[in-house]
Design brief:
- The longest helix has 30 residues.
- α1 runs parallel beside α2 and α3 crosses α5.
- With about 170 residues, the chain is of the alpha/beta class.
- It starts with a strand and ends with a helix.
Length: about 170
């Protein structure tokens, strides 16, 4: 299974593509951080983000796109930008008929580190270990995107198998 993880943000949007299956070694396919200038008008930033995401989706052809769900932040401006960037990723999935999975930060942290309150350094260390990388992925937005993809393979694969088994018995 090939999964694209998206850690949404207007200034920095992490995108990681991972391939593998639950219980098997995972492989890093690509990881990038899409950047938009904070001084640019919102519509230009969203258009730039959309174009970059569309290109990555076309190049990697993921079977599912996992996006970090905006959960709770105190800074309204940050929440709005994150939500808008997440919507662009959802739109990219919808345009191509790719299933979308939304995951909370604590769910991703728990899946990758075993601790839903893990810090960025712990997430990065585990992503590095799980993907057997020589060096930690930087910046944290990139590591978070890979953690989303890993979580979707590990948990989403199990969820889909359970749904298929349940559906088969009905």
């Amino acid at each position: 299974m090939r999964v694209m993880g998206v850690d949404p943000g207007l200034t920095r949007c992490g995108v990681g593509v991972v391939e593998g299956a639950p219980g098997r070694a995972l492989t890093l396919i690509d990881v990038v951080v899409i950047r938009t200038p904070h001084e640019a008008p919102l519509e230009e930033r969203l258009t730039g983000l959309e174009q970059a995401l569309e290109e990555l989706v076309a190049r990697h052809e993921p079977e599912i796109i996992a996006v970090e769900r905006v959960f709770s932040q105190h800074n309204l401006r940050t929440v709005m930008g994150t939500a808008q960037a997440g919507a662009v990723a959802a739109l990219a999935a919808g345009r191509r008929g790719i299933p979308l999975s939304l995951r909370t930060p604590s769910e991703v942290k728990a899946a990758v580190t075993g601790n839903g309150r893990a810090d960025k350094a712990q997430v990065t260390a585990m992503v590095t270990r799980v993907l057997r990388l020589d060096a930690p992925v930087r910046p944290p937005d990139a590591a978070d995107a890979l953690a989303l993809a890993i979580t979707e393979i590990w948990r989403g694969g199990a969820e889909r198998r359970l749904q298929a088994a349940t559906g088969a018995r009905r």
